[in-house]
Design a protein that fits this description.
197 residues
Amino acid sequence: MPTTKRTVLVTGFGPFGVHKVNASWVVVQHLAKLALGDDVRLVVREIPVAYESVKTVIPSLWSEFDPVLVIHVGVSGIANDLTLEQLAHNDGYILEDISGMCPEGNVCVDGAEDFISSAIDMQEVCDSVNNTNKIMAVTSDDAGRFLCDYSYFTSLHINRRRCAFIHVPTLDKRYTAEELAYGLKVAILSMLEQISS
C-alpha cells in the first residue's frame, strides 16, 4: 500500500565557538524520538555552521525530501524560552563562520528582498506552546544575522509558506533537552495545522 505520509524536515546545527555541543542538534535528536503522528515522516539533519554549507545543503534537502514543512533549529545564548522567528534578513552577514568566511557581499541571496516573513503565524504557534503550561515560547523578528538568520532566509526564499525557524536556549538554562524537544513537537504540530487548513 503506498504511503501518504507528510515529510517534515528539521535541522539543527553543529558545534561553533563556545558551543562545543550545539544545543539545537541535541534537542532535534530528542525530537526524533517523539512521534509526530502516524501520517508524519520526520527527517532530521545536522548542518555545519558554515555559509557555504547552508547555501548548498538546504536547497538540496528541499529537493530531496519535498517536505510539507521545514523547521530550522538554532541555539541562542540570550534566549530563555523557545523563540519563534517570524522573519529572516538577506543582508548584514559580517560575522565569520567556523571556516572564517562570510558570504559574498555579506548577503544571502543576491538581488532578493531585504527580508522575508514566514506565512506561518508564529504568534498562533507561540500560543499553542504556552497553552501546554509545560514550556514557554516567545516570538521574535530578529534571528541574529548569523547562520540561523542565513539558513532561515535561504529556506524562506525557497518557500515562505512552509518554513520556520526556532531558537532554543542553551541547556544550562531552565529547560532540559527533552522539555525543549516537547516544545518543538507542539510547535510543529501547530504549524502543520496552519499549513493544512
